């Protein structure tokens, strides 16, 4: 994922660490994916097979 967004591993780890308490606070549980991607090509191949990312409406904070 870092390669897709031009981020290093530390930036992704910090984002996960920062977001996890917010998810816990709102009792939102994310089921871990079983898909594993090592390269951007792996992501493209996964999506080309017909897999789609679930679209969820983003709620307003206020």
UniProtKB/TrEMBL annotation:
Biological process terms in GO annotation: methylation
Record keywords, A-Z: Methyltransferase, Transferase
GO molecular function: methyltransferase activity
Designated name of the protein: Precorrin-6B methylase 1
């Amino acid at each position: 994922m870092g390669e897709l967004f031009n981020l290093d591993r530390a930036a992704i780890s910090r984002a996960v660490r920062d977001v996890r308490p917010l998810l816990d606070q709102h009792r939102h549980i994310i089921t871990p994916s079983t898909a594993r991607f090592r390269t951007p090509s792996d992501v493209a191949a996964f999506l080309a097979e017909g897999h789609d990312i679930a679209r969820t409406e983003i709620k307003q904070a206020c």
